[in-house]
Amino acid sequence: MQTLTFNHTAKQRLPGKKDSAIIGVVASGNLEVLLERVLPDTDCEVIIATPVKGYDETWAAVVAEFVERSSPGGLRISINDGGARPDTVFLRLLQGSALMEAE
Question: How far apart are CA 97 and CA 30, in angstroms?
């Protein structure tokens, strides 16, 4: 198992009042994403546990694009990967941030 950690500064704090949300399942080709509102306003940390090695640059690009588009400031995001494709990772991140924004 490989663990990757990415720290970003978002443009702003993600709107909403939920303290946490979880989306997805750990299964082959899928992933589980836990989002927690525990960091200062513009900080964003993404921690990824994956059994697949050699895709560090792909993970970095997907996370950077998500932070640029969604501005998830204040969130720690923990991902348990089951070998998901980049488009699935991006979709789950967007779904998770939408859950955090919902009232």
Answer: 17
